[in-house]
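Exercise: predict the fold of this chain.
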Amino acid sequence: MKKRASKAWKLLPAPVRKTIVLVIGSTLIITGLLLVVLPGPFTLPLVILGLVILALEFAWAEAMLIRVKHHGAKINPFKFFKK
């Protein structure tokens, strides 16, 4: 099933693929950023998921995702919950 979906995705023309990825990825990032101000959960995962989707077709998004992973690895979650 995964191979068929991958093959069908590669058969689409490049401009169509980029448009689909841009719309879906941008929507997730904008929704995640809106949830920073509006009440709602799952802010950061939506932004990261949007970057992952954008990184499928865009090199700049892949570079940004690598930076996010690098800086995210530095965070110690136990530091936030220490008493």
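Check your answer against the key: The chain has a mean pLDDT of 88.
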